Amino acid sequence: MGKLEVNKKKKREALFDRAFELFTTQGISGTTISDIVNAAGVAKGTFYLYFRDKYDIRNKLIVHKAEELLYQAHLGLQDAKVTGFVPQIHFLVDFMLDRLNENPALLNFIYKNLSWGIFRELFEEKSAHEGFDFRQAYLDFLSQDASVSYEQPELMLFTILELVSSTCHSCVIHHMPMSLKEYRPFLHRSIDGILMGFGTVGQDCCVS
Amino acid sequence: MGKLEVNKKKKREALFDRAFELFTTQGISGTTISDIVNAAGVAKGTFYLYFRDKYDIRNKLIVHKAEELLYQAHLGLQDAKVTGFVPQIHFLVDFMLDRLNENPALLNFIYKNLSWGIFRELFEEKSAHEGFDFRQAYLDFLSQDASVSYEQPELMLFTILELVSSTCHSCVIHHMPMSLKEYRPFLHRSIDGILMGFGTVGQDCCVS
Amino acid sequence: MGKLEVNKKKKREALFDRAFELFTTQGISGTTISDIVNAAGVAKGTFYLYFRDKYDIRNKLIVHKAEELLYQAHLGLQDAKVTGFVPQIHFLVDFMLDRLNENPALLNFIYKNLSWGIFRELFEEKSAHEGFDFRQAYLDFLSQDASVSYEQPELMLFTILELVSSTCHSCVIHHMPMSLKEYRPFLHRSIDGILMGFGTVGQDCCVS
Amino acid sequence: MGKLEVNKKKKREALFDRAFELFTTQGISGTTISDIVNAAGVAKGTFYLYFRDKYDIRNKLIVHKAEELLYQAHLGLQDAKVTGFVPQIHFLVDFMLDRLNENPALLNFIYKNLSWGIFRELFEEKSAHEGFDFRQAYLDFLSQDASVSYEQPELMLFTILELVSSTCHSCVIHHMPMSLKEYRPFLHRSIDGILMGFGTVGQDCCVS
DNA sequence: CATGAATGAGACTTCATTCAT
DNA sequence: AATGAATGAAGTCTCATTCAT
């Protein structure tokens, strides 16, 4: 990579990082492009060389941050060596809940965006982490565990994801109806319920 | 009520109704106070006699519209004479899904606000519909049905509500991952799963 | 005076007093008619029954407050039984400086208005204090003291008044170039100088 | 200086000059920022690149105009080759009175601002006219004239300045109590009186 | 590539004044 | 005489975007 190339990358990253800081601290509509370029130490016009407008950088940030979170969760799972699909799902949910609970700013930012729309993008776009493919990883989990079988596994993921992000937002940001710590067991029971709902015959809750 | 009093009410309602129309068609940040007062046929300053700013009227609209929807669903349930708690929940969900499916503008507007925060307000504040108490109505459903018993029934309602509004939004607004029509059966299965998760022993899915 | 008459007077006085308080605490342009009527506990429209606009009430207040100050000084002089024109002038100046030093809000309010323009009004208008005539009082001082004689005594009063109000404002409000306490001896020396400057032959500074 | 630099200076000056015209003809509160930018031929936003608000440009104008006046008087004094401190003071006063009499708009504008506050700024800040130091110039006058000696020379200047600006304003703007032409001799006598009041023993008016 | 001065539409808000009650 | 809801002109200031340098 040429020196010039490196410099460009640096500018883009400076804008990216400062924008995230400002978005999470002052809100999106409370952040102006002036704020961002001032914080990044570049000229106003430079912003437009890298992003179309404020919403462009916001969208790119959401995808990026969500991807990071998922990738971290994936790495965590590998380290933890959890086996079995259901425990793996619970592990991933817990991992992400912990991260979001520690970092409410991030949660607030990606809130309601860590959803199917983002997943589509993550699934379709080339990951920033070379060679990592979210969809494939998910489907691999499933096929590795012969004891489970679901109708519409992608739809199930969507359902769980929406439930988790939505309730988690309420608990972490508003502490309503209770803290995440208190709500967490109920959330896991609800996830189990959903898994059951999507399970095919021969794999259900009651059969021992 | 004096003539003056009636006139005030009319003005407030005109602003309220036009603001809703504009918010749902042009978005909130795409709607200016000028737009609202022009549509309502009142002077700019009049707006500020009734609302503090754009966000004040928005918040009041969200509560109002959510309340209307719930109240309609409640009336619908009474007419339908459905019995049993679980069927009643499914009825209410279906009723609201239908309304929201017909009226995506409304859905988009109250999206992620038809949540616990709103419920709290609806529960605590005096309803605009004299003598109607949401919380009591819900708890009555439960107690009327001797065959079911749940831990933390309010938490269960919260969980279901978050799931429904979140998934419904994605399906109705983005048609992703599929249309509401196609997703609906899976949603109901997920709700059953959640009910099961919150159910106390002796009342579970598999007992025939 | 009828009961209705009394009520009218009360309203006017309430507006007057509250307006003065607000003008001195928030400034004139920082005070709205709404502020005044709210503080006075009357309706917006009522204001216009008594005053033309904000500047009308301001002007009337200035005249009123300046007149009060002068009248107090006059009463103080009578009690003190100071004799001789020059000591009387110094007494009056000191009396007013003390009052203004204690009450910078008043000073700021009448600043640059306790001047010839106001005097004209006070001289010409009928005083609120029945039977009190400022001009005559001043001319009486002069004629009572056979040892002094001035060209243009009214012009001299104007000169002294402008000097006092102008320097006093700077000292009291800005403490610049120094406090009033420190500046006062120099002010008195300057007044003596001016008196000398206006003195006719036979009465000048150097003759012992 | 680059082309861009020159252009910026031009814009700032256009705003400055038009603002002064408008302030003196329509008054400050009668002048809007729209008026200023229209007159200057620049966009509304441009104003805010150079000045914080209307009061910012006003303050900067006052300092600037007062400085100009003093500097002109200083130049006039050098040309006139008047010697002796007292005649120099009278010359300066006359010079400024003439200018202000010719230009009542300027007088009205800097009225009561051509005072100690401004002097402090002029004394402390670097003059716009390179190498010109007001305070030093004044002190030099004093020290050059061995025949005079004053206690607190700066305080004396303050006293004279307040007297001149205050009385001058009344005479020029309101022609009250008389025109400046008629009042001028009395003013000079008052100044002499003040000089006397501040003079140290051995230097007074009457000693021949 | 990078800059940042300039733009100008338009958002928000205030408030003196009126007038029907 | 008193009220206060309604008015709407007028003002301030912001900020995304452009473009000459």
Describe the structure.
The structure is a homotetramer of 208-residue chains. Chain A has 208 residues and is mainly α. Chain A has 2 domains: 1-51, Orthogonal Bundle (Arc Repressor Mutant, subunit A), CATH 1.10.10; 61-198. In chain A, 73% of the residues lie in helices and 0% in strands. Chain A is built from 10 helices and no strands. In chain A, helix 5 (85-102) packs antiparallel against helix 10 (180-198) and helix 9 (153-174) packs antiparallel against helix 10. The N and C termini of chain A lie far apart (59 Å). The model of chain A is unreliable at 202-208 (pLDDT under 50). Chain A binds chain B through residues 29, 112, 115-117, 120, 152, 154-156, 158-159, 162-163, 165-167, 170, 174, 176-178, 183, 186-187, 189-190, 192-198, 204-206, and chain B through 29, 112, 115-117, 120, 152, 154-156, 158-159, 162-163, 165-167, 170, 174, 176-178, 183, 186-187, 189-190, 192-198, 204-206. Chain D binds a DNA duplex (21 and 21 nucleotides) through helix 1 and helix 3.
